[in-house]
UniProtKB/TrEMBL annotation:
This protein's encoding gene: LOC100900636
Keywords, in A-Z order: Calcium, Metal-binding, Repeat
The EF-hand domain, residue ranges: 43-78, 81-116, 117-152
Domain of life: Eukaryota
GO molecular function annotation: calcium ion binding
Protein name, as recorded: Calcyphosin-like protein
UniProt cross-references to SUPFAM superfamilies, sorted A to Z: EF-hand
Pfam families: EF-hand_5, EF-hand_7
Species this protein is from: Galendromus occidentalis (western predatory mite)
Length: 214
């Protein structure tokens, strides 16, 4: 028997369905990419970011046109984009006509808009985890910070705290570097997706405070 959806998973399902219904009407290429990511759920933009960061061998933040297209291909997004879509997208992001794009700037364009209060609470959660202040969060940082007590799998005894924390950290590993770490940009990518599934600022704020014991 399938388990009932939690409030958060139901919100995410509604977001995915909403993105799917809006996609055929999208004319702006950046909005089309955003909807393609949101159609995959809260981790859609995170997964795209992880893929591009994995390809950035020299940590410059820049990708050539070939690398950019390869990244879209490896995430599967190219299947729903025409050659003209990709060309238009690259030209929009390549603002200085250098033949390269900065993928962090690209992600800023496609993240769903975040209100100031939502950005503030996301930053507060990350700062609480990042005990060393180095901009990177590990499993040890998560322990004692992320609230697992209200997690359905913890409540029914099917998973331990360690298993839940590990699974949460693994969300940030899919399609990217398996390093057991979460950067601020990855955290923001993830919660921009979660945010898109929640209409009310107050509910988002309460969810974050409860999840991260803020």
């Amino acid at each position: 028997m399938p388990r009932p959806l939690t409030a958060q998973s139901n919100n995410e399902l509604q977001m995915r369905l909403r993105a799917q219904s809006q996609l055929p009407l999208a004319t702006d290429i950046l909005n089309k990419i955003r909807l393609l990511c949101l159609q995959r759920g809260a981790t859609g933009i995170l997964g795209l970011g992880r893929m591009f960061r994995r390809m950035d061998d020299n940590n410059s933040g820049d990708l050539s046109r070939e690398e950019f297209i390869k990244g879209l291909n490896e995430t599967g997004l190219h299947e729903q984009l025409t050659a003209d879509d990709v060309q238009q997208l690259f030209e929009i992001i390549d603002t200085d006509n250098s033949g390269t794009v900065n993928f962090n700037e690209f992600l800023k364009h496609i993240r769903p808009p975040l209100s100031a209060c939502r950005i503030s609470i996301i930053e507060k959660a990350f700062r609480k985890m990042d005990k060393t202040g180095d901009g990177v969060v590990t499993y040890e940082d998560l322990k004692g910070t992320y609230n697992v007590k209200s997690h359905p799998d913890f409540q029914n005894g099917s998973k331990t705290e360690k298993e839940i924390l590990t699974r949460f950290l693994n969300v940030f590993e899919e399609g990217g570097i398996q390093d057991g770490q979460v950067t601020w940009d990855e955290f923001l990518d993830y919660y921009s997706g979660v945010s898109a599934s929640i209409d009310e600022d107050l509910y988002f704020d309460l969810m974050m405070r409860h999840a991260w014991k803020l």
